[in-house]
Design goal:
single chain, about 500 residues, globular
Length: about 500
């Protein structure tokens, strides 16, 4: 190894080792969850169906909102067909899960360096290790969901942004714009990177400071918008619509702006929606719901550590932390605002919506654990000279307790509460014809059965040959008159206490 290369290796040796461990942990957990998945999410069915459309209708496909993730699934599936010509639905599922997992593993790299800029390399490592073992984020990273691909682009853009702002590298803002433009094809929220970059540059124009003067700031603003325009303009031209799907209900008359397949498979979710209304009471409920979902993401245990870590960081004043004190509060404010707007219109917030917030705020959890460890050390150490050594010991005790709390849920297979779906799908695949139409309460049943399914809510659609019914209890009666004999029955869950059953009827 040459002296220059050796010097570089020694400089980044700890970062390389930290990243290697994080990548191995993320990959190991992800492969286990992919291998043990029972059923994927409902949204995953939509994304795979859209990905299938690309091979038949590529021009219509690229006009869809957020086509980036289905395109990644399509590309991964095409790669797998080089080695396996299986035409069933399982290769599509495995390709989709694999691309999600790859994005989660790759996201560790920009997230680690973001954490290093904010709290240092050591704490960034522990923060990401905690993020990797949190059950819900781990599940999102092994299911057919676009959240981790979105985090990969968002984190990469934030890293460019922080590096460019801290070091005055105006050309890095071009990378921010480009990543934002590409990322918005996966989730439109990725365009928020342009907002942060613009606000920072405007601040530097008003209050120029070394290392970025006014001229450099103008150059940064130019390349920011130029980078964003490169992928965005073709995307907007193909869609023939400027507004992202999430903003349409606020700026236009009430209308469902979804593709035919999305309407077919998201009836249940859309039934409870209504026109946006803003009131102090609803805002308070939205904030409470957001806090609840964040708390569940952190498995309750890490919530005090996050609060204490943020408190300790705010209390510690440091003039060199200007980039952090600008970008982190701005990021938190804008993401909370977007989540609350979502709640105002849809009355719905999920743990998935909180993942971007969690991915940035997680860096303050080790600070909180360290704060708690110092307090425990002072409380239980008999000798002041050993307080520092005991504090590190207490830190690992608190961390191990958190790992033990997360492990049972972390190792639970994805969709483990829906074992019966696969059994029902297997029966349908083996006992029905390909042209048969199946009425299903959940699209995953017909999807795994590789049959055309029509989701029903209160009425059974016409021209269906079979009906799948989920029975909540033995005394429940089916509210449909025109059904024939029962053909199949199985429990929804493997738990003995569960009384839910899946019944399949042949229609008259």
């Amino acid at each position: 190894m040459e002296p220059k290369q050796k010097s570089l290796y020694n400089k980044y040796r700890s970062d390389i080792m930290n990243l290697l461990i994080l990548v191995l942990v993320a990959t190991g957990l992800g492969v286990y969850l992919v291998a043990t998945t029972v059923v994927i999410s409902k949204d995953g069915v939509v994304y795979i169906e859209l990905a299938k459309d690309f091979s038949t209708e590529p021009l219509r496909f690229v006009t869809e909102d957020s086509f980036g993730y289905p395109f990644l699934i399509f590309s991964a599936h095409r790669l797998t067909t080089l080695f396996n010509n299986d035409s069933s639905v399982l290769p599509w599922i495995h390709a989709a899960q694999s691309i999600t997992l790859i994005c989660r593993v790759l996201a560790c790299i920009p997230l680690y360096f973001i954490g290093k800029l904010l709290v240092g390399g050591g704490k960034s490592f522990w923060a990401l290790l905690i993020l990797l073992i949190l059950p819900y984020p781990a599940e999102f990273g092994s299911d057919v969901l676009r959240d981790w691909p979105h985090i990969l682009f968002l984190a990469s853009g934030i890293l460019f942004l922080l590096r460019g702002a801290e070091r005055g590298k105006w050309w890095m803002f071009g990378g921010v714009g480009l990543v934002a433009g590409l990322g918005q094809t996966i989730r439109p929220e990725c365009a928020q990177l342009v907002v942060y970059g613009t606000l920072w540059i405007l601040m530097r124009l008003c209050v120029p400071k070394h290392p970025m003067n006014r001229f450099a700031s103008l150059c940064a603003l130019s390349v920011l918008f130029a980078g964003f325009a490169v992928p965005t303009i073709p995307y907007l031209i193909s869609r023939k619509d400027i507004l992202p799907e999430e903003l349409r209900p606020y700026l236009r008359e009430s209308k469902l702006w979804e593709s035919d397949k999305e309407q077919e498979f998201t009836i249940e979710r859309l039934e409870n929606t209504y026109t946006a209304s803003i009131s102090p009471g609803k805002v308070a409920k939205g904030i409470g719901r957001l806090a609840g979902e964040m708390t569940e993401n952190l498995m309750y245990y890490f919530v005090p550590a996050l609060a204490l870590g943020m408190y300790a960081r705010v209390r510690k004043k440091n003039a060199k932390r200007e980039v952090e004190t600008f970008f982190v509060p701005t990021f938190v404010f804008l993401n909370v605002l977007m989540i609350l707007l979502l709640y105002m219109h849809w009355s719905y917030i999920s743990r998935r919506h909180c993942l971007p917030l969690l991915a940035i705020l997680i860096f303050y959890v080790p600070l909180g654990l360290e704060f708690m460890a110092n307090g425990l050390s002072d409380r239980f150490s008999k000798h002041r000279s050993k307080a520092g050594e005991n504090s590190r010991w207490w830190f690992f005790v608190l961390l191990i307790i958190g790992v033990c709390i997360c492990l049972p849920k972390l190792l639970k297979p994805v969709g483990a509460d829906k074992w019966g779906f696969r059994s029902a799908a297997k029966w349908l695949k083996e006992n029905t014809n390909r042209e048969d139409m199946i009425a299903v309460p959940d699209p995953r049943i017909s999807f795994y059965a590789e049959r055309k399914g029509v989701q029903y809510t209160s009425e059974v659609p016409e021209r269906v040959q079979y009906l799948v019914w989920i029975e909540e209890s033995e005394d429940e009666e089916i509210p449909f008159a025109k059904i024939g004999r029962r053909e199949f029955s199985t429990d929804v869950e493997k738990r003995k206490k569960s009384k839910k059953k899946i019944l399949i009827y042949k229609m008259i």
